[in-house]
Amino acid sequence: MAERLTESQIDEALSSLNATLAADEQWQRDGDKITKTFTFKSFIRAFGWMSQIAIWAEKLKHHPEWFNVYNRVEVALTTHDVDGLSELDFSLAEKMEKFR
Amino acid sequence: MAERLTESQIDEALSSLNATLAADEQWQRDGDKITKTFTFKSFIRAFGWMSQIAIWAEKLKHHPEWFNVYNRVEVALTTHDVDGLSELDFSLAEKMEKFR
């Protein structure tokens, strides 16, 4: 069962997630969510990435909110069960970075 | 090249698209878009359907705007090239119904 992260845990997890990312590639905190817009070279690449992440989401039993139009995917991650952010959000975000 | 449909063409195409759909399954007109929310039994089914539609979208060279969270997919179709609706939107909507 996921546990709600504290503010300091969120700060730490977000810093860690963003540590190796360029300034314009950073995840943002938006209340109970972390968000990022991913841009790819084509729809095929965008949806191919989504397909990889979809399988990981199902494995993690944790699913994204995501909006896609052509080569762009806007992602928001949150954990409804805890009304906030949990480690699952950061695990899924790490997978999204790994496979992008 | 897609052509912008006239109001009466849109009315006709939308009626045809909705003809066999139950009242709570109808596509809606929203300005230059047609929209519908699809609900599935699970994330696997929702994303499986999206994967089929993604391939059709690429074949049609016409891509949806879509938002997914878990078993729900909110779709908006429009043709940016014509600043309105074209036959491509209705072709893609028909595919979405066929494969749902």
Automatic annotation (TrEMBL), chains A, B:
InterPro entries: PCD_sf, Pterin_deHydtase. Keywords: Lyase. Coiled coil: none annotated. It catalyses: (4aS,6R)-4a-hydroxy-L-erythro-5,6,7,8-tetrahydrobiopterin = (6R)-L-erythro-6,7-dihydrobiopterin + H2O. The keyword Plastid does not apply. It holds the Pfam family Pterin_4a. Transmembrane segments: none annotated. The keyword ATP-binding does not apply. Its EC number is 4.2.1.96. GO terms for molecular function: 4-alpha-hydroxytetrahydrobiopterin dehydratase activity. Belongs to the pterin-4-alpha-carbinolamine dehydratase family. This is Putative pterin-4-alpha-carbinolamine dehydratase. It comes from Alteromonas salexigens.
